[in-house]
Specification:
Blueprint lengths: L19 H88 L5 E9 L2 E8 L2 H12 L4 E14 L2 E12 L2
Antiparallel strand pairs: 1-2, 2-4, 3-4
C-alpha cells in the first residue's frame, strides 16, 4: 500500500543572502562608530588634561598674585623705612648745626661786644647786641664775614646810645648760615 502523506510538509526556505551593499554599509557603520568612539575618548582625555593644566595654572597665578602682593607690601614698607631713615639722618645732621652755630658766633666775638638776642629762622640769623665802640662792632662783622660757616652778612643798624650813663653802641646784624 502506498501511503500518501497529504499533510503539507513545511519546507524551509533558503534564507536570502543579504545584498553586498548592505553588508558593506554595516561594516562601514561599525568602523565609523569605532573611530568615533576612539575620537571621543581621545578628545575627552585631551580636554581633561587641558582642564587639569588650566586649574594648575589658575592655582599658580593665585600663588603668584599673593607673592606680588607680598612684594608690593615689602616695597611699601621699605619705602616707609627709607623715608624714616632719611628723616633720622637729616635730624642727626641738623643736630650739630646749633652747636656749631653758637660755637662759631662765640669764637668770633671780640672783647667789648656782647649779645642781647639771637633769632634763628631757617637759614636766617638775626643778632642784636651792644658794643663799647663802633670799631669793635665792625671787627665782629668782619670776623663773621670771613667765617666759612656764614654768608650774606649785613649790618642793619649801629647807633649810639647811653645805658646807665655809659656810652654804648647798639647794633643789629643779619646773615645766613651755609647749609
Amino acid at each position: 500500500m502506498i501511503k500518501v502523506n497529504l499533510i503539507p510538509v513545511k519546507r524551509r526556505r533558503k534564507a536570502k543572502q543579504l545584498p553586498p551593499f548592505v553588508i558593506t554599509m554595516m561594516i562601514v557603520t561599525v568602523v565609523a562608530g569605532i573611530v568615533m568612539a576612539y575620537l571621543v575618548y581621545f578628545f575627552n582625555s585631551r580636554l581633561s588634561d587641558r582642564m587639569t593644566q588650566f586649574a594648575a595654572n589658575e592655582k599658580k597665578i593665585a600663588e603668584l598674585k599673593e607673592k606680588i602682593k607680598a612684594v608690593e607690601n615689602f616695597e611699601r614698607l621699605n619705602k616707609t623705612f627709607q623715608q624714616r631713615a632719611d628723616i633720622i639722618e637729616q635730624l642727626s645732621k641738623n643736630r650739630s648745626v646749633p652747636v656749631k652755630l653758637l660755637d662759631e658766633i662765640s669764637n668770633l666775638l671780640p672783647h667789648g661786644i656782647w649779645l642781647q638776642a639771637m633769632t634763628v629762622s631757617g637759614e636766617n640769623i638775626n643778632i642784636d647786641g651792644y658794643g663799647f665802640t663802633n670799631s669793635d662792632i665792625v671787627l665782629y662783622v668782619d670776623n663773621i664775614k670771613h667765617s666759612k660757616l656764614f654768608t650774606e652778612v649785613y649790618l642793619q643798624e649801629s647807633r649810639s646810645t647811653e645805658i646807665e650813663k655809659i656810652p654804648l653802641y647798639v647794633f643789629k646784624l643779619t646773615f645766613k648760615i651755609k647749609v
